[in-house]
From TrEMBL:
InterPro entries linked to this entry: AB_hydrolase_fold, Dienelactn_hydro
Gene3D superfamilies associated with the record: alpha/beta hydrolase (3.40.50.1820)
Superkingdom per UniProt: Bacteria
Residues annotated as transmembrane: none
Name of the molecule in the record: Dienelactone hydrolase family protein
Coiled coil: none
MF-aspect GO terms: hydrolase activity
Domain Dienelactone hydrolase: 46-164
Keywords: Hydrolase
Length: 264
C-alpha cells in the first residue's frame, strides 16, 4: 500500500494534508494528446466504481468530503489529481495558480468550441481499468466546475454508465457560443446521443443563475432530450456538492449512482 505522506512547502501539487490521510495514493498512465501522461490517483472504498474529478483549484478538503460520502454509500472511489496541490484548501492564491496551469496545458481546452478536452482519453482509460477490476454494469463519473463536462466526454467509453455533470463551466462562457458549447467534438457528441437513445441517462446539477454554466443545460436538453436529468437550485451559487453544497443535490447524485451501478 502506498501510504499517505507529508512534505514541506516545496511539495507543490503533491502536498498531502489530513483530508487525504485515510486515502491511498496510486498512479495511472495513459495517452494524452499523443504523449504518455501520468497523474496521481487517490483511492478509497469498496463496491461499484466511481471516478470523482475535482474542480479548480484541485482536490480540496471539500472535494474529499464529498468523495467520502460516495465511499460511505458503498463505492470504490478514485480521485485523479489533474492539477493543484492535493488536499490544499481553496484560496485566491491556489485558484490563480490552478487557472494558470490549466490555461497553458495541452491537456485541457478552455476556450475552443466543438472539441473534446484532450485529458478525456486519459480519464476513459482510468474508467476502463476500474471497471475491469470491480465489474458490474459500469462505473460512475462525476466532474465539477472546470471538469464538469469531463464526465460527458468519459461517457463516450462504454465503461461509463453513470455520468454526472456538476456546474459544467468549460469552455469558459465568455461569449454566447462558448456558453452553449458542451466541450465535445461532433463525433463524440454523436456517440453520447446514441448511448442516450439506447437508454443511457445523464445527471446535471447547477444553480439557475450561475453565469459560469451559461446555456449548457439548454444545449444538453436539446441534444439529449429526456435522457438529461436536470437538478437545479435557485440563486447564484456555484459548487453544488462542495463549497455551496446542496443536500438535495448530493442525494440525487448518490441515488443516481445507486440506480445505475447497484451500490448500497
Amino acid at each position: 500500500m502506498d501510504l499517505p505522506f507529508r512534505h514541506g512547502a516545496d511539495a507543490g501539487r503533491f502536498l498531502v494534508v489530513d483530508a487525504l490521510a485515510s486515502w491511498t495514493r496510486t498512479e495511472h498512465t495513459a495517452d494524452v494528446a499523443g504523449r504518455p501522461t501520468t497523474h496521481p490517483v487517490w483511492r478509497k472504498g469498496a463496491g461499484p466504481g466511481v471516478i470523482v474529478v475535482h474542480e479548480i483549484p484541485g482536490i480540496t478538503p471539500e472535494v474529499v468530503a464529498f468523495a467520502q460520502e460516495v465511499v460511505a454509500a458503498g463505492h470504490t472511489v478514485l480521485m485523479p489529481s489533474l492539477f493543484g496541490a492535493d488536499g490544499a484548501p481553496m484560496t485566491a492564491a491556489t485558484t490563480a495558480k490552478a487557472l494558470g496551469r490549466v490555461c497553458v496545458s495541452r491537456e485541457f481546452t478552455t476556450l475552443r468550441t466543438g472539441e473534446t478536452t484532450p485529458v478525456a482519453g486519459w480519464l476513459r482509460s482510468l474508467a476502463r481499468e476500474l471497471h475491469a477490476e470491480v465489474g458490474g454494469p459500469g462505473v460512475g463519473a462525476l466532474g465539477m466546475c472546470f471538469t464538469g463536462g469531463f464526465a460527458l466526454a468519459m461517457m463516450v467509453d462504454p465503461s461509463v454508465t453513470a455520468p454526472v455533470l456538476c456546474q459544467p463551466s468549460t469552455p469558459f462562457a465568455v461569449t454566447p457560443g462558448r456558453s452553449r458549447d458542451l466541450n465535445l467534438s461532433p463525433g463524440d457528441l454523436d456517440i453520447v446521443k446514441g448511448r442516450c437513445a439506447a437508454g443511457q441517462q445523464v445527471l446535471g446539477l447547477r444553480f439557475r443563475s450561475d453565469p459560469a454554466v451559461g446555456k449548457r443545460f439548454d444545449t444538453l436538453t436539446t441534444e439529449l432530450g429526456e435522457a438529461f436529468i436536470r437538478v437545479e437550485f435557485e440563486g447564484k451559487g456555484h459548487s453544488t456538492v462542495t463549497i455551496h453544497r446542496q443536500q438535495a443535490g448530493v442525494d440525487a447524485v448518490l441515488g443516481f449512482f445507486r440506480d445505475k451501478l447497484g451500490a448500497g
